[in-house]
UniProtKB/TrEMBL annotation:
Gene Ontology BP terms: microcin transport; transmembrane transport
Any GO CC annotation of this UniProt entry: plasma membrane
Name of this protein: Microcin ABC transporter permease
Keyword terms: Cell inner membrane, Cell membrane, Membrane, Transmembrane, Transmembrane helix, Transport
The keyword Cell membrane appears for this protein: yes
Similarity comment: family membership: Belongs to the binding-protein-dependent transport system permease family.
Membrane topology: Multi-pass membrane protein
Transmembrane domains' residue ranges: 141-158, 170-196, 226-249, 284-311, 331-357
InterPro entries: MetI-like (IPR000515), MetI-like_sf (IPR035906)
Annotated ABC transmembrane type-1 domain residues: 135-350
Keyword Metal-binding: no
Localization of this protein: Cell inner membrane; Cell membrane
Amino acid sequence: MGAYILRRLLLMIPTLFGIIAVAFAVVQFAPGGPVEQVIARVTGQADGAMDRLSGGGGDMAGGSQSFDGGGDVGGKYRGAQGLDPEFIADLERQFGFDKPWYERFAGMLWDYVRFDFGESYFRDVKVIDLIIEKMPVSVSLGLWLTLISYAISIPLGIRKAVKDGTTFDTWTSAIVIVGYAIPGFLFAVLLVVLFAGGSFLDLFPLRGLTSDNWDQLSWPMKIVDYFWHLTLPLTAMVLSAFATTTLLTKNSFLDEIRKQYVTTARAKGLTERQVLYGHVFRNAMLIIVAGFPGAFISAFFTGSLLIEQIFSLDGLGLLGYESILNRDYPVVFANLFIFSLIGLLVSLISDLTYTWVDPRIDFERRDVA
């Protein structure tokens, strides 16, 4: 097993390199880079915006920003006609675009090997600090969404397998499918209208994970306040989150229930509960338990952008979206690198979970064969 883990870890290196290389290549041809973003702000907001860019965090423009200077820079950057070429050169140096692409790519790889992700182009803060700052929202949504969806889907899936073909199975399947078909953001809007000061009740807050008086609350009230803020976002996300796991659990149990060893166990006089939880459960739950790490990461990093916007939650989903729009490449690449690395590690953990649930599985022996 040690050799298998080592091989998987070594394979992560070329995989990460390929992901970053493709993303870097796409960025080279994408219009509206950070230099053009600043140019658009400058030309659209007159001298006041220019002063804000040149003063304070990051010294973005470098101090030589006359708009009546000569030089034809319009051919290189859209909207740059009439701007001082020295100002454009200062912007290129600020963002590192004065260097050839291969030098920038090599420097980025070297920094990422040391887990140095640099600073945001427009926020004047280290990227890793920015990600850590947004982490509580994503951790809260991802962790509780995964736990709640598994807590609902596993018992429901088992019950549906036992009651296969009955009225209970039919109606719950209909509810699960309808819930899965409704977009989470649409249900979130409905919840806001009904329970968050829309047209009806005003029972739940619409901003942040905690109230403004959080520091003044006792620790039991802090817990209540925390879940009070999470109630609507989690309800909107859970509605469609447990459908896949429920049906997967049901089908997995049905496959095991129909096998010969179950018939043998029943012939020995075991009760249905003993057969179900003493024999079927471990085999049927293999695929469910092994998929838990991947499900958690999926809920942790994806699908929360619209929910974050609707409920004013400043998390990683919103950070990634805004970074792409603003062409804040250090944040974009850092998110891509970190999430890809975590995804690869979780894939390895999922495989190892299979061997923990069922010791008969041996990936190392399979590879050797």
